[in-house]
Amino acid sequence: MPFPLPPTLEEQQRIVNRIETLFAKLNQAKEKAQNVVDTFETRKASILHKAFTGELTKKWRAENGVGDDSWEEKTIFEVCNSIKYGTSQKSEKSGKVIVLRMGNLQKGEIDWSDLAYTNDESDIIKYKLEKGDVLFNRTNSAEHVGKTSIYRGEYPAIYAGYIIKLDYKHELLIGDYLNYLLNSPEAHEYCQKVKTDGVNQSNINSQKIGAFEIPICHLPEQTEIIRILDVIFEKENKAKEAAEAVLEQIDLLKKSILARAFRGEL
Q1: Closest Cα partner for 83 from 174, 204, 165, 183?
Q2: pLDDT tens digit string along 9-66?
Q3: d(CA 78, CA 144)
Q4: What's the whole-number average pLDDT of the chain?
Q5: How far is residue 220's CA from residue 109's CA, in Å, rounded to a whole number?
Q6: Are the C-beta atoms of 89 and 65 separated by less than 8 Å?
Q7: How far is the C-alpha of 50 from the C-alpha of 208, rounded, in Å?
Q8: Contact at 8 Å (CB) between 23 and 226?
Q9: 33 neighbors 247 (Cβ within 8 angstroms)
Q10: Residue 221 pLDDT greater than 90, yes or no
């Protein structure tokens, strides 16, 4: 196999030194970028913990004359009008209305890919979702059972039987507050504690999720918590995406450096 051979050993050594210097810098950058990606979930969990222990809005309460005693614990049963299972009817590949399934609940939001549908008019009326509805995944793998997402009304939809709709009382709760809370480390820990494990799946029934005690503050403070979390997580997600892009580019840069090295361009 023909390959480019520098005329002297000294030039070969200079090329080696240059490659090693550049690779060392890239490896440092890779380590930092990987750390941003690896610690993302830990940072997110820490932020959510601060949000629902009142630490995140401590300054806001002081500025607005709200006491720490305004927070109280209530069960999901107490803050909901109903806890309702979804349709048990088989969905179709096409139809009038989307049927959201457990795979559509991703990272607190609805993933509108891989959709199923229904034409059943009675189900469409009975299980119709309204903007702001919070959906709880009652049956899934042990790792993912209990994941929660908020429906933002993008498309008309109902929900499948593996999902529970938490019909929360709007005078007590804001949907985004409940959604963030049920994706917190404390909620995940509770779900892991009360789940019932089967052969391939775990389950959390309505009685168990209904008994979960959650911290409640007044609606203005809930609004402030949501605002802060939205801002922080937007920055965190951008940082994570940037770090992932850096990781992809580093391998390409290394290949580019080697190509340039053996064309004599370094």
Answers
A1: 165
A2: 999 999 999 999 999 999 999 999 999 999 999 999 999 999 999 999 999 999 999 9
A3: 25
A4: 95
A5: 23
A6: no
A7: 25
A8: no
A9: yes
A10: yes
